[in-house]
């Protein structure tokens, strides 16, 4: 319901099925409908969401470059491995950032903890989570 209301509230953005559903469902499971809608609007008007939903290439490329530079600094082996495979961080980073990692983990309390930290620390925390996922998956 909150996603339909958002489409009326912001017809210029519309409905992005693959991402908004994750954000909306997390909010609806934890809040009443009006509060979930208010939080959804506030969340989308903060951080990176609107520029990603609009497809603002400059904003997306900036974040991908920033992530790549962080990855190069933390673990150059993984960075160079991705480059050798011609794997762009944009392939997974966009999906993770637009869903705030709700599509990565099945444990709702863990995802809620990630959201808490994201809301406290800001967008930089999303980069930290992404780096942690990549580094931990690479060494499994």
Write up what this structure looks like:
- The chain is mainly α.
- The protein has a single domain (2-138), classed as Orthogonal Bundle (Cyclin A, domain 1).
- The chain contains nine helices and no strands.
- The chain has helices at residues 2-9, 17-30, 33-44, 49-54, 57-74, 76-84, 90-99, 108-121, 123-138.
- The longest helix has 18 residues, at 57-74.
- It is globular, with a radius of gyration of 16 Å.
Write the layout of secondary structure elements.
Layout: H1 2-9, H2 17-30, H3 33-44, H4 49-54, H5 57-74, H6 76-84, H7 90-99, H8 108-121, H9 123-138
Helix pairs in contact: 1-3, 2-3, 5-6, 8-9
Shape: globular
Q: State the CATH topology.
A: Cyclin A, domain 1
Mean pLDDT rating: 88
Question: What is the correct CATH architecture?
Answer: Orthogonal Bundle
Succession of helices and strands: HHHHHHHHH
How many separate domains make up the residues? 1
CA distance, first residue to last residue: 40 Å
Work out the helicity level.
over 70%
- Structural class based on helices, strands and sheet pairing: mainly alpha
Helix segment tally: 9
Residue ranges: pLDDT <50 for 5 or more in a row? none
Question: How would you characterize the largest beta sheet?
Answer: none
How much of the polypeptide forms β-strand, as a percent range? under 5%
Number of strands: 0
